[in-house]
Amino acid sequence: MKFKIQSLFNKNELNLKKMYKKRGRMRQFIKYVWNGEEILPRGVYKMIFRQSMIQYFQRTNGIKKKYEYGEVRHIQHQYLNKEILYASNDLYIQNFHITNQKYNCEHVWCKSYSKLNKILSIDLHNIFLADKKKNEERGVQHYGKNGFIPDKKSKGKISRTISYIHFQYPNTFEHYHQKMIKMEDMIRWNLKYSPTYFELYRNEFIYHYQGNYNPFIRYPILFYLFYKDEWNFPELLKELKKTTITVIKSSIIRYTHIL
């Protein structure tokens, strides 16, 4: 008997325990997939792992408090103004009136692509202060070649934000991600540009006010495990070291600046 991977790993049907009981042994399950010649067993494990991660974070990392868009704008201008999207330099804005003239709120995931999950348009993780001219220039263009190419410091933030949306709003991601960014660009940007101090601060602040965090900022190794097709031990060790440092920094920020 041959399995069709498309139906086997449909998120509404994926239940490892039921599959195990139905076929008796996991060895038989792998054997069927192997004979089907549609995917290797190694790929099966990764698909199960990835789907399990999405389901886990959806259950445990949901938004606890929702804000109106006006409140979201105020939070961005007043508290999350230490780093600006699409700006070549780190900026610290002290004058709220100047901020209103030069900077506005940018949705990394365009509002027009948030119809399936309207809460995405007021999710603090998806909204950044941005250079007003660059924001207008971007419009609804996709990120990358033949679209809008952000500055280097913004590339890592954008890739981790879109990864968060993949976890938090999988239906929206599946429908629109091709209009937002190519997967190879998202992977390359994230691995090349690590989370900055202010990005860690922002993540912890949002966790305190909204009740959920971006796991790809706090735990960079998750991105490597989730998106890389081939796992390489030296690279994995490098990501583990990076994650250890990031977790320590995030904890210090939370207990010294947020709480």
Average pLDDT rating: 80
Pattern of helices and strands: HHHHHHEEHHHHHHHH
Described by strand count, sense and barrel closure, the largest sheet is: 2 strands, antiparallel
Poorly predicted tracts of residues: 1-14, 36-40, 90-100
Computed Rg = 20 Å
Strand content: under 5%
Distance between the termini: 57 Å
- Indicate the overall shape: globular
Strand tally, please? 2
**How many structural domains in the coordinates?**
2
Strand order of the largest sheet: 1-2
Helix content: 55-70%
Number of helices: 14
Provide the structure class. Answer: mainly alpha
List its salient traits.
mainly alpha, disordered N terminus, 259 residues
Could you please describe the fold and organization of this structure?
The protein is mainly alpha-helical and 259 residues long. It contains 14 helices and two strands. The protein has two domains: 5-60, no CATH class; 69-258, no CATH class. 61% of the residues lie in helices and 4% in strands. α13 (220-227) runs antiparallel to α14. It is globular, with a radius of gyration of 20 Å. The termini are far apart. The model is unreliable at 1-14, 36-40 and 90-100 (pLDDT under 50).
